[in-house]
C-alpha cells in the first residue's frame, strides 16, 4: 500500500514538473506532434498548433500560437509552403531568434525527403497551391521514418544530452513502420482505387501502388464546377473505387459523385488525433488502409 502510495506521489511530482522536459517543441499538425512524441517522448514539452479537423492550407494566426512559439526551442512544420499563409507571420510575431527559418530551431519534414508533384503539375498556371512540390509527406509511412531520423539528429543538436534517447525513439518508430508495411501492402494489393478531394493522400497511394482515379477539385483550392463533376462521373462510370474526403472539405460533391457511381464517400481525417504518438499515427494509417481496401 505504502509502495503504491509513493508511486502515485512520484507520478504526481513528475506530472507537475513541466521543466523535466529538455526541449520546448511546437508542432504545426497532429502528425508532426505524433512524430515528436515518437522521437522525443518525455524529453519534449509539446504544443500542437492545429487540431486534426483544421485545414493547414488555410489557418489564421492566433495569439495562442504566437505565445507557444515565443518560448519554443524547436518548431516542427510539414513545410513545402503548406503552412505559408500563417506560420511565417506567426514566427515573425513571436520574435524568437532560435526558431527562424534557417536556424537549428526550425525543422521542415518536407525538406528531408523527395517530393511528389515537384515542379508543379501540368495545370500549375491555373492556380496550384503546391508550387514547390506536394507537401503532404506525412501520409507516407516510409518517408516518415526518414523524417523521424532527421528530427532525432536535429533534436540531438539542440539537446546533446538526449542524443541517444532521440535516436532510439526514431529507430523504434522506424521498426514499428517496417513491421506494419507487409500487412498494409497485402491489404492494398488489389485495391481498385481512390477519388480524393485534393491531392493530399497521394503519398500513401503512391507508396502502395493504389490508383488515384480522380480528384473532386479540378484545380487545387478551387471548388469543382458542375460540368467538371459530370465529366468525372462519366469517366468513372462502371468502375470500382472509394471516395475519401477530409472533415474540412465540402462533402456535397463527394456525396453526389458517390450516389451517381454507387460508391461510398468516406469522411476521414488526414491527421491523427491531437494526442497521438507514434502508435496513434500508425493506427491513423490503419484506418486509411482499411477504407481504401473497402472500395468496390
Ligand atoms: Zn495541399
UniProtKB/TrEMBL annotation:
Record has Transcription regulation as a keyword: no
InterPro entries, per database record: Bact_metal-bind_prot9, ZnuA-like
UniProt KW keywords: Signal
Signal peptide region: 1-20
Source domain of life: Bacteria
Record-level Gene Ontology MF annotations: metal ion binding
Stretches of the chain forming a coiled coil according to its record: none
GO biological process: metal ion transport
A Pfam family: ZnuA
Cited PANTHER family: ADHESION PROTEIN (PTHR42953:SF2), HIGH-AFFINITY ZINC UPTAKE SYSTEM PROTEIN ZNUA-RELATED (PTHR42953)
Name listed for the protein in its UniProt record: Zinc ABC transporter substrate-binding protein
Species the sequence originates in: Thiorhodococcus minor
Amino acid at each position: 500500500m505504502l509502495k503504491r502510495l509513493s508511486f502515485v506521489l512520484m507520478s504526481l511530482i513528475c506530472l507537475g514538473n513541466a521543466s523535466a522536459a529538455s526541449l520546448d517543441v511546437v508542432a504545426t499538425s497532429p502528425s508532426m506532434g505524433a512524430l515528436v512524441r515518437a522521437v522525443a517522448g518525455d524529453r519534449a514539452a509539446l504544443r500542437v498548433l492545429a487540431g486534426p479537423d483544421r485545414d493547414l492550407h488555410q489557418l489564421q494566426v492566433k495569439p495562442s500560437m504566437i505565445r507557444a512559439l515565443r518560448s519554443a526551442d524547436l518548431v516542427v512544420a510539414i513545410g513545402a509552403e503548406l503552412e505559408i499563409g500563417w506560420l511565417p507571420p506567426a514566427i515573425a510575431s513571436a520574435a524568437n531568434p532560435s526558431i527562424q527559418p534557417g536556424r537549428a530551431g526550425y525543422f521542415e519534414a518536407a525538406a528531408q525527403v523527395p517530393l511528389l508533384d515537384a515542379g508543379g503539375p501540368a495545370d500549375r498556371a491555373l492556380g496550384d497551391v503546391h508550387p514547390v512540390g506536394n507537401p503532404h509527406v506525412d501520409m507516407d509511412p516510409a518517408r516518415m521514418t526518414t523524417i523521424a531520423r532527421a528530427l532525432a539528429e536535429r533534436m540531438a543538436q539542440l539537446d546533446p544530452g538526449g542524443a541517444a534517447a532521440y535516436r532510439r525513439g526514431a529507430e523504434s518508430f522506424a521498426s514499428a513502420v517496417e513491421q506494419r508495411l507487409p500487412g498494409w501492402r497485402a491489404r492494398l494489393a488489389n485495391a481498385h482505387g481512390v477519388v480524393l478531394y485534393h491531392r493530399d493522400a497521394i503519398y500513401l497511394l503512391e507508396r502502395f501502388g493504389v490508383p488515384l482515379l480522380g480528384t473532386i477539385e479540378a484545380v487545387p483550392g478551387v471548388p469543382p464546377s458542375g460540368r467538371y463533376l459530370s465529366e468525372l462521373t462519366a469517366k468513372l462510370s462502371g468502375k470500382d473505387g472509394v471516395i475519401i474526403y477530409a472533415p474540412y472539405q465540402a462533402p456535397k460533391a463527394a456525396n453526389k459523385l458517390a450516389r451517381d457511381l454507387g460508391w461510398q464517400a468516406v469522411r476521414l481525417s488526414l491527421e491523427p488525433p491531437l494526442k497521438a504518438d507514434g502508435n496513434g499515427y500508425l493506427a491513423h494509417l490503419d484506418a486509411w488502409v482499411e477504407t481504401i481496401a473497402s472500395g468496390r
